[in-house]
Amino acid sequence: MQIIQRRKIYYIISLIILVPSIISLMFQGLNLGIDFQGGTLLQVRVEAEETTSADVRAALHDLELGIEYNVQQSDNDFFIRTTELTQQDTEAIISGLDTALGGVELLETEMVGGIISSELARDAILALIIASVLMLLYITIRFELYFGIAAILAILHNVILVLGVFSIFQLEAGMPFIAAMLTVIGYSINDTIVVFDRIRENISMERREDTITMLNRSIMQTIVRSLNTVLTTSVVLFAVLLLGGVTLEIIAIAMLVGFIVGAYSSLFIATPLWHDLSNKFKTKRV
């Protein structure tokens, strides 16, 4: 396969799918979850010891109040985080849970302000930035600077596409989404490093072949591994998507899109980018 020779085609494909993502992010934005919006936190206690968070979520869903909510469990106590509630909404929730689950007691009601939510969003973005910087340093030390730059650009490509999917379809972006994004970044960098490592290995063999031939050969030597990895993980993620709850569904979608895009970028974007960068700045082979 003449991957490097046809790199402009892959650049155009990426540009075609990046533009709608960027436009949607600029004008529509993300559908931020209640973790980032502020709202009301209810702490309730259920007498029935066998009650699970799934039972509470099902009971809330049956109330059809038209509100977003997250549920966390600690023994028999449940923490229900929702958008801002009126007193009437709170009473309706407690009454409905008591009817559905039996013996429900409201322990505490707390308003979560926008300042706290803004700090949470800032910390989440900071985590993504720190992860990217550390990976750039790692690849620069292990390989060389332009490998690092190519890898970060490929990761940025993946992150924007996942964000774009969530923006276009207005899927909820809460803390589970941030966890999935960090996983996608880790997967992407690992997949890219596998290809870069093979390139470095082939360079050290000093065969009598030009750089483009060597890069194509390196990609072909790793393509089966990348495809097998994304196929096996996709099967598992499809199962989670079909059988998991709302929270797992968000994680599965983000990881599924991220893993597929990550495999594509590690093979068809990262290596061509390194080739163009190293040629432009006339970097010696590492």
TrEMBL record:
Q: Which InterPro entries match?
A: SecD/SecF_arch_bac, SecD/SecF_bac, SecD/SecF_CS, SecD_SecF_C, SecF_bac
Similarity annotation: Belongs to the SecD/SecF family. SecF subfamily.
**Gene Ontology molecular functions:** protein-transporting ATPase activity
Query: Which lineage?
Result: Bacteria, Bacillati, Bacillota, Clostridia, Eubacteriales
Q: Which UniProt keywords apply?
A: Cell membrane, Membrane, Protein transport, Translocation, Transmembrane, Transmembrane helix, Transport
**Binding partners and assembly:** Forms a complex with SecD. Part of the essential Sec protein translocation apparatus which comprises SecA, SecYEG and auxiliary proteins SecDF. Other proteins may also be involved.
Name listed for the protein in its UniProt record: Protein-export membrane protein SecF
Report TM segments: 9-27, 120-139, 146-169, 175-196, 223-244, 250-274
Native organism is Candidatus Syntrophocurvum alkaliphilum
Which parts of the sequence belong to the Protein export membrane protein SecD/SecF C-terminal domain? 104-279
The protein's matches in NCBIfam families, at most eight in alphabetical order, are given as: transloc_SecF
In terms of domain of life, where is this protein from?
Bacteria
Record GO biological process:
intracellular protein transmembrane transport; protein targeting; protein transport by the Sec complex
Q: How does it sit in the membrane?
A: Multi-pass membrane protein
**What HAMAP family does the entry give?**
SecF_B
* Predominant subcellular localization, coarse grouping: membrane
Task: Please describe what this protein does.
Answer: Part of the Sec protein translocase complex. Interacts with the SecYEG preprotein conducting channel. SecDF uses the proton motive force (PMF) to complete protein translocation after the ATP-dependent function of SecA.
- Per the record, a Pfam family? Sec_GG
Instruction: Show the GO cellular component annotation of the record.
Output: plasma membrane
Subcellular localization is given as:
Cell membrane
